[in-house]
Amino acid sequence: xxxxxxFYLNGELKEVRGxxxxxxxxxxxxxxxxxxxxxEGCAEGDCGTCTVTVSTLTRDGTVKREAINAxxxxxxxxxxxxxxxxxxxxxxSSAPHHVQSxxxxxxxxxxxxxxxxxxxxxxxAYRNRAALSLSSxxxxxxxxLCRCTGYGPILKAAENVGxxxxxxxxxxxxxxxxEQLRSLDHKDLVQLDSxxxxxxxxxxxxxxxxxxxxxxxxxLVAGATDVGLWVTKMHRGLSTIIFLNRVHDxxxxxxxxRELIIGSGVTYSDAIDVLAKEYPDLGELMRRIGALQVRNAxxxxxxxxxxxxxxxxxxALIALGANLVLRQADQRRTIxxxxxxxxxxxxxxxxxxxxxxxxxxxxxxxxxxxxYKISKRFDQDISALCGCFNIRVKNxxxxxxVIAFGGMAGTPKRARSVEAALVGKKWDRASVExxxxxxxxxxxxxxxxxxxxxxxxxxxxxxxxxxxIEMQTSLAETRLVGHGNTFL
Length: 488
Prior knowledge:
The protein contains 18 helices and 20 strands. The chain has helices at 25-32, 98-105, 115-127, 134-141, 152-167, 171-183, 205-214, 227-232, 268-278, 280-287, 292-297, 300-305, 313-319, 337-340, 416-422, 429-436, 439-442, 453-472; strands spanning 5-9, 12-16, 51-57, 63-69, 82-84, 190-194, 197-201, 219-221, 240-243, 253-256, 259-263, 323-328, 331-336, 341-343, 346-347, 353-361, 369-374, 385-394, 397-406, 413-414.
């Protein structure tokens, strides 16, 4: 067992003892290391001014580089990684990194507050040799907000960075980075104690299961995209935390026959291409879950386990008939995902039991699943409601229907009355309009800052009609972007 955190920071080995388990990487950088280029703008993972590059060694021995939000990432989750901040890009201000030069050449900075975050998002893309077309640059930078420039100069800089990344020889940087990460690769349990707080960093799911049974009321933390706000916004204290970042056997996606088995530690970024290949509309929905920094950290299992009624993944997975594998010690049970959500803030999970995997049947045709996220802005916004439809029609009759919504009740929930009104009926507009009235039996939505109850109910009804229309006509008639555009 170890009691020390080890990671590289701008190429220098750091060994940290006694740090609070809920100390954010941002606080560590600014307060302990005096690296103040990384800024705090929102402290909730929205604005990107705190963006840094984090490199990790994957299970297959390759390096994964990701842009993450330092403001909500707890320091212990960086064990065994290599962190790069804006200060680590160039040794000499007279010889800036190519990304920095492009931002200057294109006049991509005015007040400069947000600039380090933009540079680090572009640096991550540069190190990954990413081609940055206008569309891909928009995705890469959607989590970085600027109040001054209007983004045009920044997007031009991004395009030039993408061209330079393809031509640059980064082999020496790759070699050094790989050696550093290999030197940190160990299989020891890390336990940290700081005052009344304690953290465990297990290395596999068996170790996790044993620790969680011993500490059943500990908080499990993967990407901290939700838990991070408990600390930065709600100022909650967490006495015992189990970090999941080193539990690599939970980060696998396996295909067995006609089923995808997705480990609970798989991030959105790691899952999006796999799921989009099977279901393009689901891939498009995932592209709008947070921004890239959030998708790099947030996990499929975490989104399910926290039981949020406005999480976007559960409605889609329910519509696909997904099952959940729950584990307590060496015992496992499998339940339909829709049965996991009992009530607001309450899930069917025993003390010491955790989400191990999500099993997604691949029995739905690609075009049968349609996902609709309704929010006030396109990128990086929480849904007012999210509706997912999976309706099977044969010989003009509805054979089966699964319709699930988030944001319409205290949990992600199926529209069973609507489904019943459709099954066995002719698949035409008249039947659809009759079924639309059944939404009022399934849901009693609330009014809040995102939408009124009346708006939510009317929008849900209209989404069923939209689904029907999309099944009859070209998507170009109903969508400006998305399905049939990005992933097909």
